[in-house]
Amino acid sequence: METTLPLPFLVSVAVPPGLGGAKEGLNREEVSCLGCVFFQVTPPIVEKILRFLGRHNTEFHPYFDVTRLESRDDVVSLLDAGARKVFVNPERLSDFAEFGSRVAPAVTGSSASVLASATEHGLLVSDFDPTSGEAAQLVEESNSKKLKNFFIKPTAGADLEKFVKVAAEAHAIPILPSTGLSCKPETGKLAVSKILSSAWNSDRPDGLVPTVVVDENGAALGLVYSSEESVGEALKTQTGVYQSRKRGLWYKGATSGDTQELVRISLDCDNDALKFVVKQKGRFCHLEQAGCFGELKGIQKLEQTLLSRKQSAPEGSYTARLFSDEKLLRAKIMEEAEELCDAKTPEEVAFEAADLIYFALTRAVGAGVTLADIEKSLDAKSWKVKRRTGDAKGKWAEKEGITVASKEAAPAAAPAPAAEAPKETTPERITMKAYDMAKVSEEELDKALKRPSQKSADAIMKIIKPIIDDVRKDGDKAVLAYTHKFEKATSLTSPVIKAPFPESLMQLPAETIKAIDVSFENIRKFHAAQKEDKPLQVETMPGVVCSRFSRPIEAVGLYIPGGTAVLPSTALMLGVPAMVAGCKKIVFASPPRSDGSITPEIVYVAHKVGAESIVLAGGAQAVAAMAYGTESVSKVDKILGPGNQFVTAAKMHVSNDTNAGVGIDMPAGPSEVLVIADKDANPAFVASDLLSQAEHGVDSQVVLIGVDLDEKKLLDIEDELHRQAMALPRVDIVRGSIAHSVTVLVKTVEEAMRISNKYAPEHLILQLRDAEKVVDLVMNAGSVFIGEWTPESVGDYSAGVNHSLPTYGYAKQYSGVNLGSFVKHITSSNLTAEGLRNVGDAVMQLAKVEELEAHRRAVSIRIEHMNR
Ligand SMILES: NC(=O)c1ccc[n+]([C@@H]2O[C@H](COP(=O)([O-])OP(=O)(O)OC[C@H]3O[C@@H](n4cnc5c(N)ncnc54)[C@H](O)[C@@H]3O)[C@@H](O)[C@H]2O)c1
Ligand SMILES: N[C@H](CO)Cc1c[nH]c[nH+]1
User: Fold this and answer.
1) pLDDT tens-digit series, residues 474-512
2) 758 lies in which domain range?
3) Nearest residue (CA) to ligand 1, atom 15
4) Does residue 569 line the site of ligand 2, with CB under 6 A?
5) Which of 200, 195, 291, 276 is nearest to 238 (CA)?
6) Is it true that the peptide bond before 500 is cis, omega within 30 degrees of 0?
7) Do both 633 and 683 map to the same domain?
């Protein structure tokens, strides 16, 4: 995780602030206000630093030079304790690859050649001499390389003012020795306020910089201004001191008594605003309210109320009763936790979560713990790299019918390569909840297999309806505005690119072109084979000929998702059948990247299928533009393609609007897979198939049905799932989706198929002995993958079958996209005179029954004519 530094420099200290030893330089409070500290760690002080971080992890943002540590355990412990970044010898980088951006190389010297060691995660150059003859070349080289996270530390005794200047020229983050800095006017030391004021950019003639004042929970109290002098005073006095635009220095609270204790100063991402975090005594605003933007709300307001109830509660206060009755509070917390787990609708969940937070915060405030303390604990946890297994504890697991064997009972997993699972880390196990059908009821199973709840239909409609209305009213202008908002593509000036698409937009590596071409051809072959070669014709009675023939839908709009992942394969799955069907106008739509461009693979596919245009928009705005048309987006007759809940809801909405006159394919939402595996299945294959859909998004769900698996086999699959998941770049998404994914244990294939047909999965994988025979039992599924050599991803990309499939159980009534999705069928009747005589009586009699005389006459008039 790469974060913006609170300030554009680090303060280097010999020992952690406040742990003694530092006789000179900034004191503990001063360093704490600045936040970012840098230590050179040596083996004897590791323990000391770890203890220090245990207490102050969020107060200081620590960066460590660990080149003198040999023990990998020590380095990992520092990361676990909250080190934002550690710098290691370049040759040891591969040892720490799994920690990504939190580990960067460290080198020494002033020559430009040291920059060759830089990685995408940064570089530390120590012992840099700003006066050396080589410095200018290093500056030039670092500028041409556009290095990111480039930290630079001067040689001992360097002129710091000059060093800061050179570092700025090199776009490097200077590491400044605490001993050379001062928060008070002191000769021979560089004033921190001066470094800060030289770093900020003020666009005001008086040079003041806007300063947002917030409390420890981040609630904005007001907006003020700062100068170099006021920041110097604030740092010196450790209080809120600002620069009034009319009255000079402003010591907040000097007259009102509502003073502030300074907690932290930081600059924003582009250095044009300061933030002061303060502990506010009394209130900030001159009006009767906490801050200039009004009163606190939500959890912060709750904390304020609880604190005041703790000090003096009115007669009969329930909160006061909770403070004094420990057992009651304990019972209420458990009661509310259970109610939250049982809540069904989003409204219920919000209601119950609010109740639980009230009782939890009452417990915290009662124990003297503030919201800021809780947030600090959350933040500290977010930096951890060693995780606990996260399994439910004994009585709770039992209560929920979790039948998975406990970790202790599990046979030791095969040792994994060091880069994937280092011995000193115990990452939280990524595992699915298991249900044994011999022990759970059908209702319990139904509950477990419920797809992760999406926002309620009403809530989504409230979001997408105004978007659709805006696009209908304002056309291109509205589409662009939403693209600017959601995709942040603010440079985009037209929502469409039209064919012929310039070559420059589809520059791709040869291997990608080859992969697209191979997949294109397989998809084309399979969909072309679905074409009816001639009209269907049946003579239902002598002289009565009924026919059915197909015609392509003239204009189709194909939505290619692009929110969490760009999916050029979906462009193939929709574009190729549209082309094969002969649709005259093919319009693609996909969210552009933030620079306004569209992924070249999509442009290449659009070109190959002969698309008319690409709409550079996503979500409801793209759907509305294609449904109603705008100045530059062509109106289409049918919209196809998967997408998130906003896309799906917008498709449903426009298809219900008769003014739009547009059809849709089906509800195709978050990807899902159900794997049925027996004793013969390879655990690694099973796990890889589950993960291939789990990585789509946190709202995806994957299900494993194990047929007659013994405990060892199940554990093998679970170990594989965890091991493979941990090595995935999208492990965080996988954690989210696996959290609501399940394993179901059954005895027979028939039982497995019964459950699968009821669930109606988008993808069904049969990793079973004689898998082919089991296909006869499939009643509901989007697409089936048969046997151990058929991973689902072949269907996602290249086998030829379509991957745009019904999810959420809609496989019970919808087919996936196929050639038929792009054509409509027209029927015709052709009768001879004999034919009309043969069928005429039946028609006339039924018309008589319906009392539709004109219908009857259309036949009788002809029969009479024949009889004349
Ligand atoms: N079933 C299938 O056949 C199939 C195939 C491929 C992908 N998928 C699924 O498609 C989905 C793609 O979703 P995605 O989000 O990555 O991309 P997406 O393109 O469907 O959605 C992105 C768009 O959502 C809109 N949006 C996002 N947040 C919004 C908000 N708060 N309010 C209004 N609009 C908002 C924005 O306009 C954005 O452009 C995934 O769930 C994936 O699993 C399904
Ligand atoms: N599995 C998705 C259908 O649910 C399609 C896809 C696209 N890219 C990878 N997979």
Assistant:
1) 999 999 999 999 998 999 999 999 999 999 999 999 999
2) 425-442+670-800
3) 563
4) yes
5) 276
6) yes
7) no
